[in-house]
Amino acid sequence: MSTDPLVVFTPSGKRGRFPAGTPVLTAARRLGVDLDSVCGGRGICSKCQVAPAYGAFPKHGVTVAEDALSPWNAVEERYDSKRGLKPGRRLGCQAQILRDVVIDVPPESQVHRQVVRKSAAVRAIEMDPATRLHLVEVAEPDMHEPSGDFERLAAALEAQWGIAGVTCDLSLLARLQPALRKGGWQVTVAVHSPHRGAAPRVLEIWPGLHEGGLYGLAIDVGSTTIAAHLTDLDTGEVRASSGIMNPQIRFGEDLMSRVSYAMMNPGGEAEMTAAVREAIDTLATEIAAEAAIDPGLIVETVFVCNPVMHHLLLGIDPVELGQAPFALATSESLELEARDLGLGAINPRARAYVLPCIAGHVGADAAAVALSEEPWNSSDLALIVDVGTNAEILLGDTSRVLACSSPTGPAFEGAQISAGQRAAPGAIEAVRIDPETKEPRFRVIGCALWSDEEGFAEAVGPGGVTGICGSGIIEAVAELRMAGLMDASGLIGSAEQTGSPRCVPEGRTHAYLLHDATAEGGPRITVTQGDIRAIQLAKSALYAGARLLMDQRGVDRVDRVVLAGAFGAHISPLHAMVLGMIPDVPLDKVTSAGNAAGTGARIALLNRGARAEIERRVREIVKVETAIEPRFQEHFVAANAIPHATAAFPELARVAPLPRVAFNAGSGTEDEGGRRRRRRRA
Ligand code: FES
């Protein structure tokens, strides 16, 4: 048996014997222990920090003596005096193993460290970014063996880091020679190693050790807003998150109107491409400034977007997406130069990765939601709904995943609503109506008090109550139903029928008065019959899409519902169910995934394997096209009633029995809904 000292690494449990004098980093590498290093053991990057443990470890069968490692050396001394090492830490490349020892690798020293996600229910992101930093010693030029500086850099990367066959572009070559000479033939390079195919590329070079970090942007290009997360490619930490309005709104509020703009105006698609690219570039500049980071250190970008945004971002005319059979120019993921997407503010050699699209109506944003929620790993049948102007819907479990999109329109975002507004301070976001008195109370964004609580007017501030946002209108309509002020067909009763003076005539129909500040020069906020129709159209489209997937899957119920999207985070599950936006499930089985598309983009930014995984999964997802499916219309009409004309909602009935009221039996509301819908989809 070898008498060489034994080293046990925690938390991996990997162990092995090495000759006395072996550096801890060397042992870690031989055993495949995840221990980081940028400088390759030169004692300058401090990435290799470890925490030796002393004493008896019966679990490992080891007793660790005080002199198990070589004494603190000059390199560690220098590092400690300059930067400070945490107590108990050693540099793994300096400390040598002399006797049996247990070495803990703290999370920040692991290459593939896990980034904890906000939602505790979902797995952490494992760090494996495509671009990493490496310090290399490059051989000096030799007249007797002539070779180029780049060739010697490439040889050094292969010899010192095992990275073979690197390439670079002309703009980097121009920076190479001064950097090598300034660094005394020691340079740090950022190397991008794609997850498939192409050769690794050197994206950036710095003389000596570069300690300024490396960053990436995860960008969600939505129809209304563009959101970006500036993320540290070393730690996975989000350094800043920011958003900007999508300037394409001036060409059309929703996707189809933008497609029409491109159809009707020659060069219209190019205008929209230029507008969105400029906005993304501005956002990149702003977010880097906000985090006080040199934009030149941003070397990677990941894009997620719906199919129309995807084409417009890439400079492809989206006209084919406006008509059956809704053909995408490509559904595959793309690896590009970020500058080709107009990103001039960040590193000129930065890379861009665009997630694959699932289908002509189900975009890379839905792929990102799938990457975040992993329905293919769900043991129970999960319905995942990303609510926006287009609802993207996934249904699946370990056996199969299906996807579709449904044109809900902008009503859920407060548009097309008489007093509707975006979610901003002053907007009513939550509503309750007392079933006895039929009196409302509500809460507005930016104020924690309910409207019937003391001090509400002062707390809301001088801006006052300004309108109603998406979650507010959903709650208002659901509460009208629960309080018996509105019947299952969506009709609001008159004051006589309901006994509430808040039900006021409006044309030939009625409206419910939620808030009247006209005496103080403020707004009069009502929920009108037209508002209810708009919500009915949106919710029927959403439900019909989900139902269509359930048909395909051959099921009548799902086990759980996940509401994704920034808006999904604000929807109350109970009210969504009263409206019949989602199928009947126990209320505690409705969860919010927050901004799942943004999370998916971050996962793809930080983990190359995730890129390969989503590319593979997307090919396996069964795509269902709602626009050509005859049953969609059938489901849509039946879903017009609140909560539903035919489907039973037993779980809902258990928690919130709905009053049986009818204010105008036989008024043909379903017909009206069907007619309006046909018009809109045409
Ligand atoms: S590997 Fe860089 S300091 Fe140890």
UniProtKB/TrEMBL annotation:
Organism lineage: Bacteria, Pseudomonadati, Pseudomonadota, Alphaproteobacteria, Rhodobacterales
PANTHER family, sorted: IRON-SULFUR CLUSTER PROTEIN, IRON-SULFUR CLUSTER-BINDING PROTEIN-RELATED
InterPro entries linked to this entry: 2Fe-2S_ferredoxin-like_sf, 2Fe-2S_ferredoxin-type, Beta-grasp_dom_sf, Corrinoid_activation_enz, Raco-like_middle, Raco-like_middle_sf, RACo_C, RACo_linker
Superkingdom in the source lineage: Bacteria
Protein name: Drug:proton antiporter
Region (Disordered): 663-682
Recorded GO MF terms: iron-sulfur cluster binding
Residue ranges occupied by any 2Fe-2S ferredoxin-type domain in the UniProt entry: 5-109
PROSITE patterns: 2FE2S_FER_2
Organism of provenance: Rhodosalinus halophilus
